[in-house]
Specification:
Structural class: mainly alpha
Distance between the termini: 53 Å
Number of domains: 1
Bound molecules: zinc ion
Radius of gyration: 16 Å
Order of helices and strands: HHH
Strand content: under 5%
Number of helices: 3
Helix content: 55-70%
């Protein structure tokens, strides 16, 4: 057990076991995924896709999706809004991966 609260400023929620490592409550973990997904998407549209960027995206998508799957199947939130956000995060990841793969294809045909 941990007695460490979520690391986000004024948040007083304790992280679920699966998020101890991140020190984030579910709500802030999902917000973090949202931000990082958008940051990656911006990088994809702003610059030439590098192997490093692609690898970073694939790694992020795979690790995060696995974590979300654990939360969603073992410890789903009671709150309907949070459930929706959990599903939405999964869709954002799928979309990001698709974009990364599309960029890769475009580069191959160049
Ligand atoms: Zn929090």
């Amino acid at each position: 057990m941990t007695t460490t609260k979520c690391k986000v400023g004024s948040c007083t929620t304790f992280p679920p076991p699966v998020l101890y490592e991140q020190r984030l409550c579910l709500e802030h973990y999902l917000a973090d995924i949202h931000d990082r997904t958008h940051a990656f998407a911006r990088q994809l549209s702003n610059q030439e896709t590098t192997k490093e960027l692609e690898a970073a995206i694939v790694q992020f998508v795979v690790l995060t999706a696995a974590k979300i799957a654990v939360i969603g199947t073992q410890n789903p939130p009671q709150d309907q809004l949070l459930r929706g956000k959990l599903l939405n995060a999964m869709l954002l990841l799928a979309d990001l991966r698709e974009r990364a793969e599309r960029n890769e294809k475009q580069e191959e045909t160049r």
